[in-house]
Amino acid sequence: MNNSKTRSLLCVALIVCLAASDCFAIDIITRKSAENRLSGKVTAVTKTAIKLKPQTGAEIEIPANDIKKIEWDGAPATLNGALAQEQNGNYEAAIKSLKSDMEKSPASAENLRTDFQFFISRVLAKWALADHAKLPEAITRMKNFTDTNASSFRYYEAINYLGQLYLANKDFTNAGATFTKLESSPFNDYQLAAKSSKAHVLLAQNQVDQAMQAFDQVLKSPAKDESSKQRQLEAMLGKATCLNLKSQNDEALKLLETVIENAKESDARLQAQAQILRGTALLAKGKSQEALLAFLLVDVLFSGQQDLHAESLYNLSKLWVTVGQPGRADEARAILESKYPNNPWAKKLSGG
Fold first, then answer.
1. What pLDDT does residue 265 have?
2. How does 288-304 read in b/e, with b if 16+ C-beta sit within 10 Å?
3. Check: CATH 2.30.30 for 19-73?
4. For residue 94, what are the contacts with CB-CB under 8 A and spacing of at least 6?
5. Domain 266-352: assigned CATH number
6. In a designed cystine with 281, which of 1, 74, 249, 255 is the match (CB 3.0 to 4.6 A)?
7. Residues 178-209: pLDDT tens digits?
8. Is the pLDDT of residue 16 over 60?
9. pLDDT mean across residues, the chain
10. Picking from 21-30, 116-125, 306-315, which range would have the lowest pLDDT averaged per residue?
11. How do residues 127-167 score in pLDDT, each as one tens digit?
12. Of 298, 311, 300, whose CA–CA distance to 346 is shortest?
């Protein structure tokens, strides 16, 4: 075959390949309920589901609450790095990277750009829970996302974050109303999350007995899937908080053992919350050294959970002294005051 004919055939093959790519963009979806990933072209997005057309076979509908991750066709390679920064608690760097990537993405990539907006809002929300000076900005951004993306599969997750931000800002009226929206979702796990969150609203207003009854209702509800079981573990943490406040620390510790045994190792937030509550219960029982170890676990293993890390540092600044290591107490205090100056635990340490 001569070179001219070869080049012509290659050109034809390239044109066919490019045409196929244009007609069939590849989006990859990782689900919570299955290990295998699905690939194809997303053909429809609503607040409750995504429809995916594989290269072969029938269209698949995936419930919104079962979507763990979507790798959109055309997404920049740097996106995974930004999300890793978020996971590690490097919130400022994550937001900077996400904004840069969003600016470079084409206006026609609507689904990808919506995800960028959500990711930026989510990272800012996590940051604001540790740095309360950022709460107004975080609330405004997340509310703007929910108002303008009511048909996004990210909607209910965003609503959940918005409620948490209102709660941290002590806006109990808006927090309760937002969790009611979440409770109206068709998904069992989000319904349970909403009930637990409403219990936290009661708890924040010192209605401990009512809050514990609400957490018990979540624990008695049927868990229809793994995500719902996860929500029940979160409700156990809420009930343990109530038990600690009622000085029923032994019961709290038993409940926390169940959470720690059943939580996934990869669930850093659940593990960190359990250790914080365990440390609180042990401290109330006068077991200072064991309490110190619980808070130290959060400092060493879960510092990416910034709001919980701040609480652990506060307790370590007190407990290191009790075991004869005032230098380490000073170190914990210095980190808390420098890294989380606007966190309530830093203000509590300084007497604010």
1. 86
2. beebbebbbbbbeebbb
3. yes
4. 82, 83, 85, 86, 123
5. 1.25.40
6. 249
7. 999 999 999 999 999 999 999 999 999 999 99
8. no
9. 93
10. 21-30
11. 999 999 999 999 999 999 999 999 999 999 999 999 999 99
12. 311
pLDDT tier, 224 (very low <50, low <70, confident <90, very high otherwise): confident
Tokens of 136: 């107004």
Q: Decide which of 1.10.287, 2.50.20, 1.25.40, 1.10.8 is the CATH code for 186-262.
A: 1.25.40
50, β-bridge pairs: 45, 62
